[in-house]
Design goal:
single chain; Rossmann fold; 10 helices; binds iron/sulfur cluster; globular; 13 strands; 5-stranded antiparallel beta sheet; alpha/beta
Length: 340
């Protein structure tokens, strides 16, 4: 998606800081344009799932809480936190954002058959006249994915496999008016045939409706066909947001993508993965968290946290980067170093 074609920013998440035993998401920011699929990638334990939950203002782990930040969808405030005090707009949250947890059963009501959940949801958002057509649209999604709708709707969530629970939740979420769907590892239980059908359906859906998806995944195959952008999480922060056709500039992003490079032989990819930097590095509040592994490090990296700044791009794509000395900073001029 080119910059000039980005009609508007749908989701803005600024400076999200989540506190538990330690700060586990710290000052993480992201923007999501309309009509966009953005993947949220990074090593396990870097904070991706908590960031998704943080966007909604609610956590599965009740010991976690928001310390600071602000989330808006289409300009409407969802929540704002300052000095540990949180102002939450519950009505807007339910209407604007839908989140599918990694364990899909946690997104569904265990006491109600899926059909009942669909009816309740439709009654909330649609008039009586519209409900039959909306139910048929939910069925259509399942049929396109090769699933007989009755197999899902006639059961309680606990009677469904993990994959079918994901499909049930997706079928529900797609019938809400939510402008942003947050999907946490929802494709991990799908075989390649189902994955192809579901991602193709979702790509058309995003194109047709202007909705946007933010998808936590470890599957690099989703970058080429499905996604527009990739946001990279490292040690509690977003360090780069880059279009899939653009060159990443952050040293960790380069390293991370190298693990997926198909031109490398499998043994070399395994070697890179096996020597990946620590995923649970202590979040640093007085320097770059990646500085102990980084070959690009300069003095400033030891003392100052690199802020996430927008880079200049020739092609109009958005590109955000948190690094004081990125790759190709001087060679190709793509990065406006004065902002760093
Ligand atoms: S800010 Fe410094 S240490 Fe961190 S990734 Fe960039 S160059 Fe490396």
């Amino acid at each position: 998606m080119k910059r000039e074609n980005i009609s508007r920013i749908v989701l803005s998440a600024k400076h999200i800081t989540v506190s538990g035993e330690n700060h586990i998401v710290y000052d993480a920011s992201l923007i999501l344009p309309s009509h966009t699929v953005m993947l949220l990638m990074g090593m396990s334990g870097s904070g991706k799932s908590l960031f998704l939950q943080g966007i909604t203002g609610f956590f599965l782990d009740e010991t976690l809480r928001l310390c600071q930040g602000k989330v808006t969808v289409e300009g409407e405030e969802i929540w704002q936190a300052k000095d540990g005090s949180v102002r939450l707009n519950r009505e807007a949250l339910g209407d604007k954002i839908a989140l599918s947890y990694q364990e899909a059963g946690q997104s569904l009501n265990p006491r109600l058959k899926c059909r009942h959940q669909l009816r309740l949801l439709l009654r909330r958002f649609y008039s009586t006249n519209e409900i039959p057509a909306e139910m048929e649209r939910a069925n259509e999604f399942l049929r396109v994915s090769g699933i007989e709708p009755e197999r899902v709707w006639s059961n309680y969530p606990c009677q469904l496999s993990g994959g079918l629970q994901q499909m049930a939740y997706l079928a529900l979420a797609l019938r809400t008016p939510a402008r942003v769907l947050l999907l946490d590892e929802i494709f991990s239980n799908m075989d390649s045939a189902l994955l192809e059908k579901v991602t193709t359906f979702l790509a058309h859906h995003v194109h047709d409706t202007g909705r946007s998806l933010l998808v936590v995944t470890h599957d690099p195959s989703l970058i080429s066909g499905f996604a527009h952008y990739v946001a990279i999480f490292y040690s509690g922060r977003i360090i780069e947001i880059v279009h899939k056709k653009d060159k990443p500039l952050h040293p960790f992003t380069r390293y991370f993508f190298a693990c997926f490079d198909e031109n490398l032989t499998a043994p070399i990819r395994q070697l890179i993965s096996a020597n990946a930097p620590g995923t649970r590095d202590k979040i640093s509040s007085n320097g770059c968290s990646y500085r102990h592994q980084c070959k690009q490090k300069i003095n400033k990296c030891d003392t100052t946290v690199p802020p996430l700044r927008e880079c200049k791009t020739e092609n109009g794509h958005i590109h955000f980067l948190a690094c004081f000395n990125p790759f190709d900073n001087h060679e190709d001029g793509e990065y406006d170093g004065s902002k760093g």
